[in-house]
């Protein structure tokens, strides 16, 4: 296939490297910074430095930019896409994006089928791109009204890249779960490192500090958009976390050892029941 990847950050760059390493598809790279395209071509991650004109020969297009940029790019360049091509994304929010993209694509003879590779690193540039990033990861497909052939197309491409599982979801379920599994931990990490103790942690910290603080190395521009675009599910999860933290705070302040022990036991059992 001719596959175009728009945006060669960590996810787009990793897709390009993985496709080039594990498949024979022809990869077209499109990126605002030409230097990145030249590096990707030199690395063998892409087979062609593309432009919006190159979209006319792409059977499948991965949009790997910020959510609002995706809608704007596709709307402005709709006439350049190959009729009947499948367009997907890699964004961490789906409800708002799917509505806008489905409408634009339907009006222009294109197919939008949302997706979200559950993989990443704290770094977010092409420098961090890795052909092995998706090995064993989960790939979420959000059809948004696309037919089975588009879902199958994305599933097959995901398998080629080494994804370990494929999950089909609705936009609403996706955003609700991502608020809990991804966005809330980022909020927690960012709040955690704002403690006045954080600058002095060296020598006093081990795995617990690293585990909780790791994702505070955040792309503030991207995650501001993701948080605000998914504010209702995320704020609900933040509220639940605050309620649970308040319970622990009160039990500790008041020295209620038996109740504190029971709260800790319940948490241990929940985690154990998940087999993780």
Q: How would you briefly describe this protein structure?
A:
It contains 10 helices and 9 strands. The chain is an alpha/beta fold and 276 residues long. Helix 6 (171-192) packs across helix 9.
Topology (SSEs and partners):
Blueprint: E1 2-6, H1 10-22, E2 26-30, H2 34-43, E3 48-49, E4 60-63, H3 67-77, E5 86-89, H4 95-107, E6 111-112, E7 114-118, E8 138-142, H5 148-160, E9 165-168, H6 171-192, H7 207-213, H8 220-229, H9 231-253, H10 257-273
Parallel strand pairs: 1-2, 1-4, 2-3, 4-5, 5-6, 8-9
Antiparallel strand pairs: 7-8
Please explain how this structure is put together.
- The chain contains ten helices and nine strands.
- It has helices spanning 10-22, 34-43, 67-77, 95-107, 148-160, 171-192, 207-213, 220-229, 231-253, 257-273; strands at 2-6, 26-30, 48-49, 60-63, 86-89, 111-112, 114-118, 138-142, 165-168.
- The protein has a six-stranded parallel sheet.
- Strand 2 (26-30), helix 2 (34-43) and strand 3 form a beta-alpha-beta unit.
- The model has no long low-confidence stretch (mean pLDDT 95).
Rg is: 21 Å
Side by side, the strands of the main sheet go 3-2-1-4-5-6
Shape: elongated
Task: Please write the string of helix (H) and strand (E) elements.
Answer: EHEHEEHEHEEEHEHHHHH
Q: Determine the strand fraction and express it as a percent band.
A: 5-15%
- Major sheet, described briefly? 6 strands, parallel
Which consecutive residue ranges, at least 5 long each, have pLDDT under 50? none
Number of β-strand runs: 9
Q: What is the residue-averaged pLDDT?
A: 95
Q: Give me the number of helical elements.
A: 10
Measured as a percent range, the helix fraction is 40-55%
Distance between the termini: 38 Å
Structural class: alpha/beta
Oligomer: single chain
């Amino acid at each position: 296939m001719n596959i175009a990847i728009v945006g060669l950050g960590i996810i787009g760059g990793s897709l390009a490297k993985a496709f080039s390493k594990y498949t024979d598809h022809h990869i077209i790279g499109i990126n605002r910074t030409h230097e990145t395209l030249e590096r990707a071509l030199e690395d063998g991650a892409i087979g062609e430095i593309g432009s919006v004109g190159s979209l006319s020969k792409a059977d499948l297009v991965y949009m790997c930019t910020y959510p609002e940029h995706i809608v704007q790019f596709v709307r402005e360049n709709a006439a350049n896409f190959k009729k009947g091509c499948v367009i997907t994304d890699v964004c961490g929010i789906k409800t708002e994006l799917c509505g806008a993209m489905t409408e634009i694509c339907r009006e222009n003879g294109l197919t939008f089928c949302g997706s979200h590779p559950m993989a990443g690193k704290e770094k977010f540039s092409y420098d961090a791109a890795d052909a092995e990033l998706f090995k064993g990861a989960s790939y979420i497909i959000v059809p948004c009204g696309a037919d089975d052939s588009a879902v199958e197309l994305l599933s097959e491409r995901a398998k080629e890249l080494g994804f370990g599982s494929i999950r089909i979801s609705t936009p609403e379920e996706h955003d609700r779960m991502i608020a809990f599994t991804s966005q809330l931990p980022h909020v927690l990490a960012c709040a955690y490192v704002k403690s006045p103790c954080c600058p002095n942690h060296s020598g006093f910290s081990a795995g617990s500090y690293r585990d909780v603080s790791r994702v505070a190395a955040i792309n503030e521009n991207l995650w501001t958009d993701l948080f605000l675009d998914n504010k209702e599910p995320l704020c609900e999860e933040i509220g639940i976390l605050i309620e649970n933290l308040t319970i622990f705070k009160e039990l500790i302040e008041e020295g209620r050892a038996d109740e504190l022990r029971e709260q800790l036991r319940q948490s241990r059992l929940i985690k154990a029941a998940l087999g993780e």
